[in-house]
């Protein structure tokens, strides 16, 4: 007696049935609210609440000095992004190559990722205060104190550095997962040929982890643009002189402090477009670099 197997028609439908719940969740909780936000950005605030105002909100953003500062800071984050990716990549490489104490390092490096940004910000406020421990050490070395959080030209670099320290543990875990797909025979061949660590990383590890690097680049960029609010709020509150404003902080300020949800929606739309364009450019550049290697 032959048992009939699943029909070809059902086999073709099975992938769509499995994917359907995730698609519905993305559409319902992501794409639909995004469309509503974009539509809301073309309406007015205050007395004009809900009334169409065309591009007025976007023109106001273009003329707002605080929003201009936030966009310049986005450019700074993009420039610092390779460094934010290289740090966990190199540390993951050393752990994968089993340097002494690699198991301990794995736990230590990941620990900051489980801390709340508020806690991290409070800790570094104490460490980086004008009369804090770091400036005391610098004074002992004969260097004058640095106003890490009060100097407009330094504050943004300080907050970004703290953010990288607090979050690179997650990227490190992703890199370690990527190493599990790397062909170990290539590393053995490089070791036999006497390749230096630098050449091994550049010619073996980087080409072998191209997709992992692309993923970490995009997720790190998204994290830097959308997950720094806690640090900014605790460490600088957007100051000094608005020097540490980012679009997400600007959005919160307009929505929560100024009661201008339509303008905040316009800023959110601009942030989404910036993230989309920057992400696509990064992936394109990384793919070209991978093909050239």
Keywords:
single chain; 293 residues; mainly alpha; MetI-like fold; transmembrane; sugar transport
Describe the structure.
Helices cover 74% and strands 0% of the residues. It has helices spanning 8-40, 56-63, 65-96, 102-110, 117-128, 133-140, 152-179, 184-192, 197-208, 210-226, 229-235, 247-257, 261-292. The protein has 293 residues and is mostly helical. It has one domain: MetI-like (MetI-like fold).
At the third CATH level, what is the topology name? MetI-like fold
Helix content: over 70%
Label the structural class. Answer: mainly alpha
Q: Determine the CATH superfamily.
A: MetI-like
Subcellular location: Cell membrane
Keywords: Cell membrane, Membrane, Sugar transport, Transmembrane, Transmembrane helix, Transport
InterPro entries: ABC_transporter_permease, MetI-like, MetI-like_sf
GO cellular component, one term: plasma membrane
Q: What's this, in brief?
A:
By secondary structure, the chain is mainly alpha-helical.
Provide the fold topology.
Layout: H1 8-40, H2 56-63, H3 65-96, H4 102-110, H5 117-128, H6 133-140, H7 152-179, H8 184-192, H9 197-208, H10 210-226, H11 229-235, H12 247-257, H13 261-292
Helix pairs in contact: 1-13, 2-13, 3-4, 3-7, 3-10, 5-11, 7-10, 10-13, 12-13
Family: Belongs to the binding-protein-dependent transport system permease family.
Organism: Nonomuraea thailandensis
InterPro entries: ABC_transporter_permease, MetI-like, MetI-like_sf
């Amino acid at each position: 007696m032959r048992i009939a197997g699943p029909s070809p028609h059902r086999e073709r439908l099975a992938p769509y049935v499995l994917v359907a719940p995730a698609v519905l969740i993305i559409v319902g909780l992501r794409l639909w609210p995004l469309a509503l936000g974009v539509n809301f950005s073309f309406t007015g605030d205050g007395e004009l609440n809900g009334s169409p105002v065309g591009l007025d909100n976007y023109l106001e953003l273009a003329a707002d000095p605080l929003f201009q500062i936030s966009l310049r800071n986005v450019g700074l984050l993009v420039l610092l992004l390779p460094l934010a990716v290289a740090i966990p990549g190199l540390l993951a490489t050393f752990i994968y190559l089993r340097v002494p104490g690699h198991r301990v390092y794995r736990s230590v490096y990941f620990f900051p990722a489980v801390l709340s940004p508020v806690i991290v910000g409070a800790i570094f406020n104490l460490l980086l205060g004008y009369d804090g421990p770091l400036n005391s050490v610098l004074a002992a070395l004969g260097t004058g104190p640095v106003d890490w959080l009060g100097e407009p030209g330094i504050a943004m670099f300080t907050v970004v550095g703290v953010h990288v320290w607090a979050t690179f543990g997650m990227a490190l875990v992703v890199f370690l997962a990527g190493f599990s797909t790397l062909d170990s025979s290539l590393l053995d061949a490089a070791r036999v040929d006497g390749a230096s660590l630098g050449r091994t990383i550049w010619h073996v590890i980087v080409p072998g982890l191209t997709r992992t690097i692309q993923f970490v680049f995009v997720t790190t960029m998204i994290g830097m643009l959308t997950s720094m609010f806690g640090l900014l709020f605790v460490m600088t509150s957007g100051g000094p002189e608005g020097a540490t404003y980012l679009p997400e902080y600007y959005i919160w300020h307009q929505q929560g402090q100024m009661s201008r949800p339509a303008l905040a929606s316009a800023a959110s739309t601009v942030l989404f477009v910036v993230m989309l364009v920057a992400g696509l450019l990064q992936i394109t550049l990384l793919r070209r670099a991978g093909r050239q290697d």
